[in-house]
Each structure stands twice: as C-alpha cells, then as structure tokens.
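Q: For a teaching session next week I want to show students how multiple molecules come together into a single three-dimensional assembly. I've collected the sequence lines for a complex. Could you give me the predicted structure tokens for the whole thing so I can convert them for display?
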Amino acid sequence: MEKRKILLVVLLLTLLSLSAFSAKMTITWWINPWRIAPPGFPSDKAPSSEDYPKWASEEFMRLHPEVEVKYVVVGNQEYSQKMAAAIATRTQPDFFKGPVWDSRWAQNGLLEPIDSYLSEEDWKDFYQVVLDEGLIDGKRYIWPWNFGTNGMGTSMLLYTPDFDKAEIDWRKIVQEGWTMEEFVEICKKLTWDTDGNGEIDHYAISFGAKDLHNIINFLYAFGGRLSDEGETTVTLNTPEAAAGLQFVLDLVNKHKVAPKGVEALGVYDVIGNFHSHRTSIGFGGPYEIGRITRYILAGTLKEMFYPVLAPFPHAEAKDPVAHTSGSGFIIFKQNDQAKREMVFEFVKFLTNQQNLALLETLQYLTARESVNQKLYVNDPYMNKQVKTYGAIMDKYGMSFFGSQEFPWSQMEKFIISAFEATFAGSKTPQKALDEFVTEADKILKKAK
Amino acid sequence: MTVWKRVWKGRAGYFFVLPHFGMYTLFFLIPVGWGVYLSLFDYNVFSQEFIGFGNFATLFSDWLFLKALGNTFLYTFGVVPLWLGKALIVTVLLHPFRNSIKTFYKALFYLPHVTSSVIVSMIWLWVFNPTYGLLNYFVKSVGLTPAIWLGNKFLAMPSLIFMQFIMGGGSTIVLLSAAMASIPDYYFEAAKLEGASSWKVFTKITIPLLKPTILYALIMGTIANFQTFSNIYIMTQGGPEFSTISIGYLVYTTAFRDYNLGLASAMSMVMFGILAVLGFLQFKWLGSNVEY
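A: Of course. Below is the structure for the complete assembly, covering every listed component.
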C-alpha cells in the first residue's frame, strides 16, 4: 500500500515537472491599427491592421520557441474603454501600443520603467523628444517606436498643381517658409469659383473646430502657450493666443479663403476637402501622404497625387512652430523576473533597426535617428518629404499639449467648445479662450 | 402553505426560469449593484476611496452635468412625441390597405431600425455638411440661406431630433399596426353608422384602444432616447458649445476618457432614478385600460 502511494506521488511529480517544462511563457500585447506591411508583403495590396502584429508575433516565436505570443488589435475608438476595463479586472496585456495612456498608471505603480533596459546605443540613437514622452517623476515609461505622429499641427501639405495654376512659387515656401501676411495673400490667390456660377467653390485651406492640432499651431505661432513653464496655470488666453485664433477666424470670415462651418467640422472633413481638391493646402506629414496611397489601394480615392510638405506660416520676426511628439510601447508591471526580461526582449525586437524600418511602409518617421537616415533611399519624392518633415520637427518642434502629467485629455472638450463658439460667432476669441482657461485651471488644480 | 412548500410545489416552473434568472443576475443585477457601489467611491481604475455621496454632490454642482441633463430631456421630449405622432399617423393611414401593401410600407419604415446607428449617423453627417451637404443643396436651390446645421448651438439639437424623427419610429409603427389590427372592425362600422367624423373615430376609438401599446412605445422610447449616445458620439461629440451633450455621452467620456468611473457611475444612477420616475409617472397617467 505504502509502495503504491510513493509510486503515485513520484508519478504526479514527474507529470508536474514535465508539464512545467512543456508550458510556454505567454506574452500578450495590444496594438491599435497600424497598417504596416511586413517583409515580403505584396506591394500592390493595402496591408491590413492584422498583418504587422501577426508577422511580428510569429517571427518572435520562431526566434524564441519557448514563448507564445498573443496579439490583439484594438480599434482607436474603443481603446481607452477596453484598457480601463482590462486594468479594472487585472486582465491588462503585458505591453501595449495605443492611442491612449494615462500618467496616473505610472504614478500608481502599474507600469515598468524602461530606463535600465535601454542600452548606451539606444540612449544615443533614440530622439530625446521621444524618450521624454514618457518621462514621469524622473523615470521613463514609453519605449520609443515612432517620431512624430500623423503630422497634424506639424507641417502643411501643398497641392502643387493648384499653386502652379495660381503662379505661386511653392518651392520657395518649402525652402524659406512664409510669413502670415504672405500666407494670406497666397491663400487669396488659391481661392476661386471653379464652375463660373459666381460662387466660390474652391478654397485655399479648410479648418475644423475639432481639428485641434492645426488651429492650435496658429495660437502658438503668435506666441500663445498652453501653460506656464512649471505647468501650474493654464495660459492659453494671452493676447498672443487670442491674436492667433483671431487670425484663423479672419481667414474664414474676413479673407474668405477657408469655407465657413468650421464649428461643425473635424479633422476628417479637412482631410476630405484636401483629397478631393476642394482645397489646395492640407495638413500633416509623410503619414498623410501615405494615407493618399492607402486610400487609392483601398479604392476610396480615385486619383493619386503627390503633395509637398511645407512649414506652417510664421508671425513676423518669429519662427514657425511645429507640434512634435512620439510614441512607443508601454510595459505593464511584471512580477515574474524571467517574463519581464522576455517582454523587454520582445519590445527590443520590435524596435531594433531592422524592424523599426518597417514604419517606412506607413510613411512614419522612426524613433531612431540611425534608421531615419536610411529611409526612402530609392524614392526621391518621399526622401525629400521626409527630410523636410524631419527638419521642421528638428528646428521648430515642441509639444503643444504639455507633459504627460498635464491633464490635457480632460481639458480637450473645453478648448473644442471655445473654438466652436469662436467660429460660430457666439464669442470673441478672447472671451472663448478666457472661458476655456477658467475650466482648464479647475481641472489642473484638481489634478495637482 | 409556507413559502418553501410553494416553491417546491412549483419546482418545475422555477427550474425552467432558473437559467434566465441566472443570466439576468449575472449580467444585469450584479453589474447594476456594482454600479451603485462604485458611485459611492472616488474610483479611477487604479485607486479607490470611499466618499459616500460626494460624487452626487459634485454632479449637482457641475454646470456641465446639469447642461447634459437639460439636453437629454430636450432630446427625449423632442424625439418621443414626434416618433409617436409619426407612427400613429402612418399606422392609421396604412390600416385600410391590403396586407401586402401594409407589409411593404412597414418594412420600409422598419429598415433604418436594422441599419447600424453608426452608419446612419455618418450618412447624416454628410447630409448636414455645411458646404457640400445635401440639405444645404436643397436649401440653396429654393433660394434660402444655407445653415450650419451641426455647428450652430441653436440648430444642432433640433437637427439631431429631426434626424432621429426621420430615421426612427419603425418599430413603433410595427407595434401599433399589430395593435390596430386587433381592434374589431365593427367598432369603426358602428361609429360610421352613427355618423361619427374621421377625427372622432380617431380620438374616441383608435387612440383609446391603442393606449396600452402607446404606453409601451412611450416608455420604451423614453428609455431608449434618454440613453442616446452613438449619434452624438459620431456627429457632434456633444458640441457645439456643449449644446448636444447628453448624459449618456458624458458618462462615456467621464468613465473612459477621464477614467473617473465613480463619478460616471453616479451619473448612471441619476439617469436610472430619472427613468424610473418617468416610467412611474407614465404608468400612472396613461396606465388605465379602455374597454368597450
């Protein structure tokens, strides 16, 4: 009887140890839709949001057979909702790349700081601005991946056939920039009546009150700033900021170079106007050029066109400004040391020089300076645009929305309301911005 | 007979309702109870602090919440009567026709109901587009000044109500048609023989006999519209100047943009309380059945 018991225990222990050996370490990651073409992807097809994470997961599993990688593509709209539910139920992924994150996650110990995992080469190669994106209380929490976003608030896109038609030297604008006064005069030349019925149906540019980055660029260009240096008070109601907003309002109402109805429009309306050539000036960086290609491949746009990148106009005796940011992977706290190491290994794999260069297929700049130097070597047009974009960000880049500890996401609805009120004519720019600052200051004080 | 004995006697019935009740408890009662619990906390996913009725005090001193509450009432009391009115008129107009024609029109009115509200909202975004939209095209073609429908704080809410009025009410038409078909024809024949006008027939026979269905449609319509979210999320995001912000949308942004789940739960509780009171009042005023 005793022998049988011993035999049974030995058998159980053997089975347990065998299952422990065969059990794979599971890494789960979430990513929002990035339509990156993995190596070998057919060039005549538009990649889906699944292609890149699927390839990356399989490739990492091939290199590390002891690891099982599970990826989930989470849509931008539902990302924060799903993440909140996941954190609340302790089912968050091991790491993620998404459109949202909250500095409070780091402050409450939910995230892994990345500083000690960055190599000396990483510190040198990653752009400082991207490294600082996730800087909270002296530690970094975002592993850099891309530099700059879609370029909204960073650069403008010029549809050159319209400029040629209006006999405007767009090359000079790209090289030397343009003052606000020059910008107004050029916009006037780019506004016309196409069908000759006496009504303007083609405008130089368009704006949307919910398209914050591009309007805020003008507020910054005139000298407005969201907050003071220490981020203790919101300051976007200074006379300079109000002058910037008044300038955009004048483009619509006084100079009539942008269509009315700004208060009802959003960023996709603005993009749509540019794509359909109802406007000659659009917004965005290389990613927005890539959007044209993707829309062509997806069949939502019929005719390919090749806009050029230019800086936003600048106020007299001032430099232009450009919204600059970066993003990357955020790692949730790992209790198991071996798994933590493997998660970081995976993140390093995704951001090594070779794999980071895949962002080229999406017309994004990478977070590594060394990789960006080699992008688009066989495509002179894109090479030129990327160089212009990089130069604009390098010279004039700044973050419009404060540090990660600044509660911008909670203030956003109030600035949208201020812009809506301004363009609807129910408030002056100064009054609308004053009211925004009142609400934003309340949020800031509560957050502090 | 004790309670337990009665339960035992009806055990077969309880056995059959048990799966449904289990699901109802798991997916409705427990989450609602959890929502009540959360409304008493300052809960932001990663930290939790009991604050009693603090969230409710915050809500009723917050102008944005009060504005959302007012907007939600405006939207609900704008849409529901229009829906009901439209459904009643269409039902009465369809009633004399033969079944195939009735079915065709009922299907036509029901069609938007089976279309995704997101798609419907996106189509209407283009209809309302200030520069290139269909509505302003017609407005201009009759010589009127085009309007910025969703950009004007005085027009945005009526525009949403108008859209909902046009697209909604299909299910109410189906319900009322079924109820109308169950009214015996001899009531109408008798009324005609007595020389009653069409209006008298409508107000004294049709409406009173449809009252239970109207009450049902009224309550369900009020609940559905009070919780409106997707059209506001897609079309206005609560703007311009918060003129279309609804409680449903504010709950969403508070919970999933600001990560303030305690405050969002308190908002949901207020919404639940208001709907319960509205339902009670509607039952009290319209709940009496009519028999001839």
